[in-house]
Design goal:
Ferritin-like, 193 residues, binds fe (ii) ion, Ferritin, 7 helices, mainly alpha
Length: 193
């Protein structure tokens, strides 16, 4: 349903389980970046009224996810650590050539956002199914549902604002590229690592 072409190696969960503090830290910053992306889309594309309205709602939801993860960190007696770069996202966002019309740039940013949401959703699903800690598993199950809605929303906007056929082709090409990136990942205790 997410369209991803390469599923995560389930052994990734074993790596994560050995370091819950690291995964929660990385996860908190994923939620912060999702919030920042929504704000940035508002600033960059203010004339797309439907998008602006949805991004306002998304900012609130993603920052509330950030708080949920932050609360989990505090519950465990930890303090949020510093952010680290997300190699997966850095590689992903080199796929489309820079430039083009405003609509083209918007479509590219929406497709990147859709894919990051889809992969996050897949990772959360795996955590919700495989984690030994049932309370944490339930925490990830709830978040999985939210991220699936975000994936659908971003892809829907790309199709609404761009040429449908062209957008579908770009989405398919991006999925192929993402599967190549994933071949070298699933080896570290980060949401996309
Ligand atoms: Fe989120
Ligand atoms: Fe999200």
């Amino acid at each position: 349903m997410l369209g991803l072409k390469l599923p995560t190696d389930p052994r990734w969960v074993n790596i994560v389980e050995k370091n819950i503090e690291d995964i929660l830290t990385d996860h908190a910053y994923c939620e912060q970046k999702a919030t920042s992306t929504a704000i940035s889309l508002i600033v960059s594309f203010p004339e797309y009224t439907d998008l602006v309205q949805e991004m306002v709602a998304l900012v609130k939801e993603e920052i509330s996810h950030f708080k949920m993860v932050h609360d989990k960190i505090l519950e465990n007696g930890w303090i949020l650590g510093r952010d680290r770069k997300d190699d997966y996202v850095l590689q992903l966002i080199t796929f489309f050539p820079k430039g083009g019309s405003r609509t083209t740039q918007l479509v590219h940013r929406l497709l990147y956002a859709a894919l990051i949401e889809a992969r996050s959703c897949e990772r959360f699903r795996l955590l919700s199914e495989e984690l030994e800690d049932k309370e944490l598993a339930e925490f990830y199950r709830k978040l999985m549902v939210s991220e699936a809605n975000h994936y659908t929303m971003f892809l829907g906007f790309a199709r609404q604002y761009g040429d449908r056929k062209e957008v579908d082709q770009k989405w398919n090409d991006l999925l192929d590229y993402e599967a190549e990136i994933m071949k070298n990942l699933s080896k570290s205790e980060t949401i996309h690592g």
